[in-house]
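Job type: complex structure
Entries:
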Amino acid sequence: MLSVEVNNLIKTYGKKKEVKALSDISFSVPQGELFGIIGPDGAGKTSLFRILTTLLLADSGKASVDGFDVVKDYKAIRKRVGYMPGRFSLYQDLSVEENLNFFATIFNTSIKENYDLIKDIYVQIEPFRKRKAGKLSGGMKQKLALSCALIHRPSVLFLDEPTTGVDAVSRKEFWEMLKGLRKEGITILVSTPYMDEAGLCDKVALIQNGKILSIDTPQGIVNNFSKPLMAVKSSKMLHLLKDLEQKEFVENVYPFGEYHHVVMKDKSGEQLLQQFIQRRNDETTVLYDAKPNIEDCFIALMKS
Amino acid sequence: MSNTVITANKLTKRFGDFVAVDQISFDVHKGEIFGFLGANGAGKTTAMRMLCGLLFPSSGEATVAGFDVFKENEKIKKSIGYMSQKFSLYEDLTVKENMEFYGGIYHMTDKYIKEKTAYILNHLHLEKEGNVLVKSLPPGWKQKLAFSVAIFHEPGIVFLDEPTGGVDPVTRREFWNMIYEASERGTTIFVTTHYMDEAEYCSRVSIMVDGRIDALDTPGNLKKYHNASSMDEVFLQLARKARRSE
């Protein structure tokens, strides 16, 4: 069964519809999948989430959540989805416990009834249950927001950039929590600008300027990277980059952490690159065959 | 040492009983790209605010651009540039108006503002967008423009607080090219980021844990000492030792 179905969604903003937030987007998410929407700011992630949670109307196209139409059946959808917006949206002047109680009550349930679902997350903030939400740290706010989005046991959970601005350690912890929820059978749609989080999803959509560049499993996306890729470093990185940019056999070259990634136009480029490096006669140079990751794929898709 | 543009010696900030920044000591050299890393709540923002002359330290010493953070914080503000992901440009002013505004704040002459504006628009290929409201620019362009505006008055040091958050991977690299160019012209860059691949682009990196600087070296040496293959691993090793959360 499909939890989310999106067909030809278009959303524009502005008097003359000059800002295209979503340009004809289609995809579907089966029940129980952890689906990542990966793209930079302004790609259209938030517009898409707001349409699917019935908070925004599309210009045209159709979308359904749990089989319910986002326009006609908005009331039914609101009862069964959980939504964690990018901006902290709980009541700052209510305590941790009061916020959670409030959301439980709105959905005609109680903390007790669904406690097992949020337990692993909520225990981490329970010692501060009397503290006002506005006084919590960023990480604790995030855990409270997730608890509140889950307290009515939604069938589909929408998380809009839950890890933006969060450090590498807390990001890893957050993804551990999501894996736990996935085991409960909840469908999760999560958006993120961090390319390295793609590998943690069952399936990802890479999105840029309101268009989907590619949808596949993380492995599938990487497998589709067809050009030869090598990594190179030397003591003079900037110099090396400028030199490689001039080379005929190089399709694209860009810094990639400690190394530069060099994408060759075709297979013959590998040998040409090796020859070029030998001629430079710089013994600090290290060259090896690199495996592309999602970021390489995103860059290649953006350029094409 | 004339080559040193930031010095901190046992710089400390307490809020009541809480020691946000705990006796940090380090030097930053002219033209260096200095990466200032740490988990959320490690004390990065507090340390940066002290160095920018926005917050008085509780104890210790520090100078920025040769000025004392206790006595000469107004002079520090004039000598530095600052840009963050959250706030950088006025959305409801045009591209040119933003530059005029920043140039005016830093007491640049009309002639300087005019020439510099033309240079930046040309350099960023934004000639046609000069009279466009900043809010209508794509996010990636905004960040590049914001950086240009932060160094509009040609400060010796620029502080960048997570400048590339949420930026696409191509623009993120173009942004770092601009950082390299500025550093080659002698501008010192003090930068925080959550992208660990960007830590590799820095001349030296410091990692804050629980208010202290637990590591400070070149990315290469840090990886060697921690027996790690990437800066991501180094960061995780150190940050996991943290006892306090934000």
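Summary: Residues 4-239 of chain B form a domain with the Rossmann fold fold (CATH 3.40.50.300). The radius of gyration of chain B is 18 Å.
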